[in-house]
Specification:
This protein is an alpha/beta fold. The chain folds into three domains: about 120 residues, Rossmann fold, CATH 3.40.50; about 200 residues, Rossmann fold, CATH 3.40.50.720; about 50 residues. About 0% of the residues have low confidence.
Length: about 400
């Protein structure tokens, strides 16, 4: 399966390189975030776009996978970034205007950045699927904790978090609420460790005040080299930083029993194979961090409470079955999950996505706005739950 579109360009005057990869489409549409980094590569964007296809396929959501990449200096000010993002939007406008590419946030980009891009592309977001609801980190935290719960008991489990940004801090709060113990966190400024546990509320407060310097502002701990966090004797490791940070050079040093990614493609394929042979359970990243995709898609039709219910029940059951079958077949979970996701994607592309959209479109056309709110959400929510229940049929 090759990408449908691979597009790259360089703007010498503004000093940036841009990439867009449309890995797949359903009814001519694809979704994916914009990754901004001074080291992002075309190969990385291709793999991230494929990950989006796998997420949508695993969850049976009728949408294709895509990703954009913007290689610029990470230290640029807001004022200097704005014209670059605007030019990126103008260049991609022909892909955005017809819904071929529906952009969202990713590592290095914010909602404001996406708004700048859409404005430059002269496109309004109010006709598109809601891929940004403001609750994305929370939704991701919910799927992470429910994924980990299928592999290990969470109460008093020692958790290390690589990358204490939006996703890492949200996961810390949610794991703590489930009585897990956050013992180590890292940022680009370093890492801290306390085997007795770190105060999650204080960590989040310091992140809001100090950003990445929170690791220097928190005192009841020992400071460790950033890379050493991966080697700590913990029960659960949450990689929530960049791509490929767990690889063949450090996979043999990891002591965690379960790895549950919040980041996209944080492990190389070689690392996953090494960890599988060592008996360490690696939840596939496109499964464990799929909460934002799942939650933001269903948010058009369901309340936040209903979304949590779907994740707690149907999603958790799907992950349980994935790990169960993986153990029975003695195969690593990611390989199995990829087979399932690709199969479902083609099933949806063939018929299911069209049927879902036709039904929802019919309800919108047939009913006044007041009744749509009463009828549309429960119908769509029920449809989505039925699709997840069929996950392993």
């Amino acid at each position: 399966m090759l990408p449908e579109l691979v597009y790259g360009f360089y703007r010498k005057g503004l000093g940036f390189t841009g990439y867009l990869v449309i890995d797949s489409t359903i009814e001519g549409k694809s979704c994916g975030g914009i990754r901004e980094s001074q080291s992002v590569t075309l190969d990385e964007v291709k793999k991230l776009a494929r990950n989006m296809t796998l997420k949508y396929g695993f969850l049976r959501i009728p949408m294709g996978g895509a990703k954009a990449g913007l290689r610029i200096n990470d230290t640029l000010s807001r004022e200097k970034r704005k014209p670059i993002i605007a030019e990126f939007g103008r260049t991609l406008s022909r892909f955005i205007k017809n819904g071929y590419f529906i952009p969202g946030t990713d590592m290095g980009t914010s909602e404001e950045d996406v708004t700048w891009l859409m404005n430059a592309a002269k496109e309004q977001r109010n006709g598109y699927v809601n891929i940004e609801s403001g609750h994305a980190p929370e939704y991701t935290g919910w799927t992470m904790v429910n994924s980990a719960r299928q592999a290990i008991k969470l109460e008093n489990a020692a958790v290390a978090i690589q990358g204490f940004g939006k996703i890492g801090s949200s996961a810390a709060r949610i794991f703590s609420e489930d009585r897990a113990k956050i013992v180590a966190v890292s940022t680009c400024k370093g890492a801290i460790h306390n085997p007795r546990g770190l105060d999650t509320d204080r960590l989040i407060d310091l992140r809001n005040k100090c950003g990445d310097d929170l690791v220097n502002a928190y005192h009841e701990c020992r400071r460790v080299p950033r890379d050493h966090l991966l080697e700590l004797p913990v029960d659960i490791l949450l990689p929530c930083a960049g791509s490929y940070l767990i690889n063949s050079t450090n996979a043999h040093k990891i002591k965690a029993k379960v790895i549950c990614p919040g980041a996209n493609i944080p492990l190389t394929d070689q690392a996953e194979q090494i960890l599988f042979k060592r008996g360490i359970i690696c939840i596939p990243d496109f499964v464990s961090n799929s909460g934002a995709v799942l939650g933001n898609y269903v948010a058009n039709y369901a309340s936040r409470t209903k979304i949590k219910e779907i994740i707690d029940e149907e999603f958790s059951r799907a992950v349980y079955e994935l790990l169960k079958i993986s153990k029975e077949r003695n195969t690593y979970p990611k390989g199995l999950a990829m087979q399932i996701a690709i199969r479902r994607f083609y099933e949806i592309k063939k018929n299911e996505g069209k049927l879902q959209r036709l039904l929802l479109r019919g309800i919108r056309l047939a009913l006044p706005d007041a009744y749509q709110k009463i009828i549309l959400k429960p119908v769509a929510s029920h449809m989505f739950r039925r699709l997840l229940k069929r996950a392993f049929s």
